[in-house]
Amino acid sequence: MEPMRRTVPGILAALILLACTACTITQEDPDYVPPPPLPALEQLEQAPVTDATRFSAGDGVLSFVTADHSAVCSLTSARGEHLNLPYEQNAYSDAANNKLAIVPVAHCELAVYPKPEAADVTDDCAGTGLGYLGGVALLTPDKAGYGECRSGVTQMEAEFGPKGSRNGPVAGLPVLEEGQNLERNGLRCSAYNGGVACGNVSAGVGFFVSRDRYELISDGGKKTAGTPSGAPKTP
Fold first, then answer.
1. Is the pLDDT reported for residue 26 higher than 90?
2. Which of 231, 224, 209 lies closest to 66 in space, CA to CA?
């Protein structure tokens, strides 16, 4: 029995040592600085493409909102200036527009948004020079733009802006979670960095939009335009 008594404490010590070495103690590093978000086109190129099935809004359209409901976007089609959007009234399906070429586009609306920079205003609004507002971004296969001529609010603003109703067609759309990436007809959109990036990666054009800033990307990703930090928001 004496050898057995001497062995038991040794076994217990070994078990205690094994249990301790199996434990993992995680401690936050106060000096850790997380890496900055990827540039928009790199995010679109590197993020895995998400299954698009639940984002289908019919007629070849993919639509989504961001998790905080600050933006709604669609990967859809245009005939001239007419966009096929499931949450905005439009003339896309009018027979008079059937003669126009169908072009794949990505379109986003923001609930709160920065004003367009003067250099990015591309329309004189029927010669008035008034009513060119921010809050929308449009991507075609070879160009990205921010803002449009309008006299009222977008559907996104009406639902999730400062005085929004919080219900309507946008409220029922599926959420594209942070980091997820959708693709349709060569164009991609990804929810990331507090906003949405959409782009044609192969052509090097795209945009990034959020409630605080926007960025337009062109010339193979070498040239950008958009809002400086701290730019005023509308409304």
1. no
2. 209
